[in-house]
Amino acid sequence: MDFLPALMLLAIIGIFGLEQAVKGSLARGIVRGTWCLLLVYSVLFNALAGIKAHAMENWFDGNVYFGEGQMDKAIKCFKTATTQGPQSASFHVAPRKCSFPFRAG
């Protein structure tokens, strides 16, 4: 991640250079609108990826608690993961396995 600030600077210079190279207010507006849409898409994509990663983290925590026999904490983590990632089948099946008696080893 050490290269990220330099890459961001290069992208900003490129955007401003493209805006300066384009003649006419309509074309410049189209260029500006396009890069604004790409920026919004990038931010939303990263935010949604973060939500998915957080749901997976809760699911893994639930599995750890299940393995340790702490069913209350496991169910809480599984339900949190289910609300954050409702499309994942494994998130929906996991709370059901906590209802069975736990047997170690």
Q: How would you explain this protein's 3D organization?
A:
This protein is mainly alpha-helical. The chain has one domain (4-97). The protein is 81% helix and 0% strand. The protein contains four helices and no strands. It has helices at residues 4-21, 25-68, 71-84, 89-97. The protein is elongated, with a radius of gyration of 23 Å. The protein starts with a helix and ends in an 8-residue tail after the last helix.
Brief summary:
The chain has 105 residues and is mainly α. It is built from 4 helices and no strands.
Principal-axis shape? elongated
Order of helices and strands: HHHH
For the record, give the distance between the C-alpha atoms at the N and C termini, rounded to a whole number. 42 Å
Number of helices: 4
Which radius of gyration do the C-alpha atoms yield? 23 Å
Residue fraction in strands:
under 5%
Work out the helicity level.
over 70%
Low-pLDDT runs:
none
